[in-house]
Every structure is written in C-alpha cells, then in structure tokens.
Amino acid sequence: MDRSAALVRLLAGDQAEDRAVLAGEPAYVALRERDRARREAVMALLADGWPDDAEALYAAAWVLNHGDLTGEAALGSRLAARAAELGRPGARWLAAAALDRSLMYSGLPQKYGTNIVPDGVGWRLWDVDPATTDAERIANDVPPLAEMQARAAAITTPQPDMAGAPESLRRAMRRWGTLPPA
Fold first, then answer.
1. 102 within 8 A of 74, measured Cβ to Cβ
2. What is the pTM of this model?
3. CA-CA distance, 123 to 134, in Å (whole number)?
4. Cα Rg of the chain, angstroms
5. 27 half-sphere exposure, CB direction, 13 A CA radius
6. For residue 181, which of 173, 125, 166 has the smallest C-alpha distance?
7. 59 SS3 class
8. Given this model, what pLDDT does residue 59 score?
9. pLDDT over threshold 90, residue 127
10. Is 88 in contact with 55 (CB distance < 8 Å)?
C-alpha cells in the first residue's frame, strides 16, 4: 500500500468524524478511541521516515493534532511546517495550532492562541504568550488575538463534565478560578 495514500485516507476518516460530542459521553469515548487508532497508524507509517509530499505530511499532521500527548502534537506541528514549506495551503495554520496544542498539553501558554477550551463556566482561549504579535499570527494564517477571544466568547455549547478533564486543564481552571467544586 502507498504510504502517502494511506495517510490521506486516515485524514479522511478523521475529518468524517462528528466532533460535536461532549467529553465523557459514550460517543466521545468511542471517538477518542478511533482517534487513538488513527494516530497509531500514522506513527507506524512514519516509522521509516516522512513522506516527501505535502498532502501526506498535512494529513499526518492533522491526525496527530487530534492526539492527547505533547509529543504527538509537537510532531504534528513539525510535519505541518514541512507541508507548508512544500506549499500546502492551510499548513501554516495547522503548524501553529499543533504547536499551540503541544504547549497547552505541557501546561504552558500557547504561542498563537488557537486552542479554545472549556473552563467550567464558559469557553476561553487557553493562556497565550503576550510576546506573540498579531503580525506573527497573521503570518501563520492565525486570526488576530481579539478575533480568537471573540470566537471563544461566542461559543454557547454546554460545558462538558469536568470530572474527567485532563490534569493540565484542571490546573488551569484552578489558576483561572473556574474549577467547579468536587
């Protein structure tokens, strides 16, 4: 089987998922299991090196961006950055978003401000490095910070059950003063 085609098919499966399910629900648990299986397949396909075409690199990056681990997201960022170098539209944004996700999973501020999270009360941007400028965001196809903050404020989706929230999110919620009582 052609490795590049296999990576593109894995992305197609990822993109066909309904991601509007709330954390903790059985549908969410099943989604995360399918995400895990796709990430494992991507890692197996990359074991002998990266493909040399932008579409396959982009596909692998997207699948890894739906991971749970800092290393997966960081690798996704590097793959997307390479896809951007090769001219893949949308890859600069994906590289920025995956980098932000890797920083978020490490409990650090995002560089660009692409990740919106539930905070137990509403939705907000994960903390953002104040040194990053809107010019840097725009150069990486990320909207200005004020636009991303407005997007977060406009979300009306109910809060998921925070009992199973990752520890990095629970620590942030304590810092933000939004952690619901146990």
1. yes
2. 0.92
3. 21
4. 17
5. 7
6. 173
7. helix
8. 97
9. yes
10. yes
Q: How far apart are the first and last CA of the chain?
A: 50
pLDDT in tens, 10-34: 999 999 998 777 777 788 889 989 9
Q: Which residue has the tokens 């290393």?
A: 71
The single residue listed with the structure tokens 């920083």 is 103
* 67: Cα within 13 Å, side-chain hemisphere: 30
User: Which two three-digit tokens encode residue 7?
Assistant: 């990576």
Stated as kind and residue range, the H or E segment containing 117 is strand 116-118
> SS3 of 141, please?
coil
What are the tokens at 137?
């965001």
Rounded to whole angstroms, how far apart are CA atoms 139 and 133? 10
Which pair of structure tokens corresponds to residue 63? Answer: 């699948």
Query: Can you state the angle between helices 54-65 and 91-105, rounded to 10 degrees?
Result: 30
- DSSP alpha helix (H) spans, 16-156: 26-46, 54-65, 70-85, 91-105, 134-139, 145-154
